[in-house]
Amino acid sequence: MKTLVVYYSRKGSVKAQAEQAAKEAGGDLAEIKCKTKYKGIIGFMKAGRQAMKKACPPCESISIAGYDKVIVCGAVWASTICAPVRSFLTEHAGTFPEISFILLHAGPEENKATIEEMDKIAGTTHSDYKSIQPKK
Description:
The chain is built from four helices and six strands, in the order E-H-E-H-E-E-H-E-H-E. The protein is α/β, with parallel strands linked by helices.
């Protein structure tokens, strides 16, 4: 099974999880490159505002053609999926082969509502997911 692991990482935690997932799956790794910058406190505030507004900021396109499975890795911002991942899911809505999710979050909850929202945006149902609370 040819697998693509796609991720957006503001500070590096998601990137580490995505690299591990790609290694375990023997798959390719692709970073979602967002044209909006989220560095520093201003970037943090912008990220939260975009997540709450369910914004889809412009990002470079990533092809999923030829893959049997796409693993999407992202963080939960303001109790929902981060804006760059929302953009990626929206771009490919209805065209995903098998899809699964890896979410990183600050709180102890598993974010089932966020996973359901990701399914809705992607136009499919995930095959599995991991909900991870990174150690501080």
